[in-house]
Amino acid sequence: MVGPTGIGKTRLAIDLAKHFSTEIVSCDSRQFFKEMKIGTASPSSKELAEAPHHFIGNLSVQDYYSIGQYEEDALKKLNGLFEDYDTVILVGGSMMYEKAVIEGLNDLPEADEGNQKKLQAILEKEGIEKLQELLKELDPEYFAVVDFHNHRRLLRALDVIWQTNKKYSEQIAVSQDSRDFKTLRVGIEAPREELYDRINRRVDLMMENGLLEEATRLEQFRHLTALNTVGYSELFKYFDGEWDLDFAVSEIKKNSRRYAKRQLTWYRKADDIHYLPLGYSQEDFNRLLNYLNDKLTFK
Predict the structure, then answer these.
(1) Which stretches does the entry tag as region Interaction with substrate tRNA (predicted)?
(2) Are 138 and 167 in contact (CB under 8 A)?
(3) What digits encode the pLDDT tens for the residues 10-40?
(4) Is residue 2 situated within a structural domain?
(5) Annotation: binding site for substrate
(6) CA 152, 264, 36 angle in degrees (round to 5)?
(7) Residue 22 lies in a domain
């Protein structure tokens, strides 16, 4: 179950899980952290009660957790679930985490200490904007989809590019491992203006539900990777007195829309996604079920 932030993946995933009497595995890397429920739009207690979920609020922001660890944990979980179910629902908008589960990670080189020191020095002296500029120049394809506010993603990509003299986007595009399960991809699509309006309204709802208080509790952890993300980094600037609150909220909306645009760019390259329209009807849902039943063949 794929698609941009704010499109309604959670509801559709639950409806599909209930139809197939199965469970949901999340690949939303922001929703792993239990302290970040509001700012990551994690499923509510009511939604979690409608279908069993895995990898929601299972970590603390203080825990180190890599995409490689997630790949290993998710595959282990799937292997267990497939002993009881023919179908499992994978849902989330973290594109690389989805790719890790479905295709496997490439055999990329380990971090080079010298490169990391050089890049860290650039970050400290010239800011994250310089790293963004470097990546955009060396690999515009990856820059178009990466969360470029996450400096660790930028450091990793630039390090690999420097080591291999190849674009990072080319190296992660090649599938390394086969999987012993069949994958069908379902998404929700909407006119961009409507999607952006949904994102803006969702940010307003987050603020009403206590995002400011959540960010206040997490400010002591602002140096951690998990907090270097949309919805929190903007409010930290408000706490620092750099921005007023209205501007910080407007920046959350803007950066959320930018992230959705990068997600759309990523998914637009795929030709295997069966789309439902936003606000889909019961008739649309029934057609989706017919499509899935036609495609799913079990031994």
Answers:
(1) 28-31
(2) yes
(3) 999 999 999 999 999 999 999 999 999 999 9
(4) no
(5) 5-10
(6) 50
(7) yes
